Amino acid sequence: MTIRTLRDYGQHYRPRMACLKNVEVFVVEMQDPKSGVKGADQKLNVTIIPHVINGQDILAWIVTKMKVTTEEAQAFGTMLVAYGYIYPLQNHRKLVLVPDSTLYRFQTPYFWPVQKWPAEDIDYAIYLARRNIRKKGMLEPYEQQHYDNLHKWMNPKWDFIVMQATEQYKANKERKKPDRVVLDCQERAYWIVHRPPRRTHSAMDYGLDRLIDPNAEEVTGEYCNIFLTQALMRSAVKSSMSLTAFVKFVTTHHNHDPFLTTPVPSNPWITDSDEFWQLNSRSVDIPTKLSVERWVLSFWELISDPRGRVDFKLFLKKEHSAENMAFYEAAEEMRWGAASAIPEKSQFIFNTFLKPGAPRWINIDGRTMGLTVKGLVVPHRYVLDAAQTHIFLLMKKDTFYRYLKSPVHKDMQKRALVPAPHVFTDAQLEANVRNRNPGVSPILQWQQEEEEKAAAAVAARPIDVKAMVATNKLDRK
């Protein structure tokens, strides 16, 4: 991009800012009590919300004021909703002007796009923490995802964020209920524009303008040059190294890619034979030779395959180090499980793996152990990351290579199946279509997996030697 192009960009940006200012003047005119859109009090659930308008009145006013067609007026109204000048009261995630009785309200000027630029992550974290307190942990799925990410990124500041959210929550409780509801709707509408859910279009998603003050008189090429310089100052890998690594990966995984190599015994999507899925299912007793060969490629390939993980656990049990894999799985379950179960799971993990004298105590360095135990005082999803990474690297660099040389793996290589490829005639293919198997129900498969997990948890439970001795004495008597 040349300096001339940057200057042209600055010249192009000035009309855009003038357009935004004209939009704000237009929105102020829409709120005029005499000539603007007529609003009325509306009862929402059990609270009366003042100055509520509907989409039909907004559309009619824009058509009359701007002398445009209905389609153009609806497009302009949708732009006002997308930029946050007007927000829906009920379906807050639908940032579109619906020309019917859908209820809307004008956003307060404090939350207009140019007044708060850009939206800071720490402000969003305080808002989500306050909302989490008010909703008692029942956030919407996309809000919960943003909350977890911010909690991980801002973990050193999280005590300050929770303190600010608690103070704001207490101050907000002193307001009248209609004022609380209106303020909550305004804040939610602001953040749905600036932090939209995934796979949702946002009018605020653009790059260069986010680093530019919209209240400035003009935009020069210097600002754009700074942005492009910062964008280029990142670590990069030589293209030759990237291509070499890519070729090596493709060569290694060529035989395991069904798009590059014909699956054995046959492709179930073409022949309607489900034998391929049965041979590679989770609960198969003896895996195929191709699956066993894939376990050798990397430690991640081994534990990603449920059957390979079972074989690796058998080896760990014989080496008296099964607690490493048990801790890794417990940390994964805590990371991806329900938020309400985190305190209970963290206490179980501490008592089983980390507590001095624990029945399945894991061997990690003192610094990592200290940080992990200290973090479990106020547990969250990522509190076990350091200990889990330590155990993962220990198994990857040491245990994995001993497993490859062990009799357990060599015996599995000998027993692995080598299915013969199918050769179907046209008549047999038609018969396969007629006799197509609907497959195993996902619900039944999930129930079976839950039963297997429960049985594994019972088997992994520490043994109380004193209770066993007492039981044996009673049996003898």
Automatic annotation (TrEMBL):
<dbReference type="InterPro" id="IPR040759">
    <property type="entry name" value="RGS_DHEX"/>
</dbReference>
<dbReference type="Pfam" id="PF18148">
    <property type="entry name" value="RGS_DHEX"/>
</dbReference>
<dbReference type="Pfam" id="PF00631">
    <property type="entry name" value="G-gamma"/>
</dbReference>
<dbReference type="InterPro" id="IPR036284">
    <property type="entry name" value="GGL_sf"/>
</dbReference>
<dbReference type="InterPro" id="IPR047017">
    <property type="entry name" value="RGS6/7/9/11_DHEX_sf"/>
</dbReference>
<dbReference type="InterPro" id="IPR016137">
    <property type="entry name" value="RGS"/>
</dbReference>
<dbReference type="GO" id="GO:0008277">
    <property type="term" value="P:regulation of G protein-coupled receptor signaling pathway"/>
</dbReference>
<dbReference type="InterPro" id="IPR036388">
    <property type="entry name" value="WH-like_DNA-bd_sf"/>
</dbReference>
<dbReference type="GO" id="GO:0007186">
    <property type="term" value="P:G protein-coupled receptor signaling pathway"/>
</dbReference>
<dbReference type="InterPro" id="IPR036305">
    <property type="entry name" value="RGS_sf"/>
</dbReference>
<feature type="domain" description="DEP">
    <location>
        <begin position="33"/>
        <end position="108"/>
    </location>
</feature>
<dbReference type="GO" id="GO:0009968">
    <property type="term" value="P:negative regulation of signal transduction"/>
</dbReference>
<dbReference type="GO" id="GO:0043005">
    <property type="term" value="C:neuron projection"/>
</dbReference>
<dbReference type="GO" id="GO:0005737">
    <property type="term" value="C:cytoplasm"/>
</dbReference>
<dbReference type="GO" id="GO:0005096">
    <property type="term" value="F:GTPase activator activity"/>
</dbReference>
<dbReference type="InterPro" id="IPR000591">
    <property type="entry name" value="DEP_dom"/>
</dbReference>
<dbReference type="InterPro" id="IPR047016">
    <property type="entry name" value="RGS6/7/9/11"/>
</dbReference>
<dbReference type="Pfam" id="PF00610">
    <property type="entry name" value="DEP"/>
</dbReference>
<feature type="domain" description="RGS">
    <location>
        <begin position="298"/>
        <end position="413"/>
    </location>
</feature>
<dbReference type="GO" id="GO:0035556">
    <property type="term" value="P:intracellular signal transduction"/>
</dbReference>
<dbReference type="InterPro" id="IPR044926">
    <property type="entry name" value="RGS_subdomain_2"/>
</dbReference>
<dbReference type="InterPro" id="IPR015898">
    <property type="entry name" value="G-protein_gamma-like_dom"/>
</dbReference>
<dbReference type="InterPro" id="IPR036390">
    <property type="entry name" value="WH_DNA-bd_sf"/>
</dbReference>
<keyword id="KW-0734">Signal transduction inhibitor</keyword>
<dbReference type="Pfam" id="PF00615">
    <property type="entry name" value="RGS"/>
</dbReference>
<dbReference type="GO" id="GO:0005886">
    <property type="term" value="C:plasma membrane"/>
</dbReference>
<protein>
    <submittedName>
        <fullName>Regulator of G protein signaling 9a</fullName>
    </submittedName>
</protein>
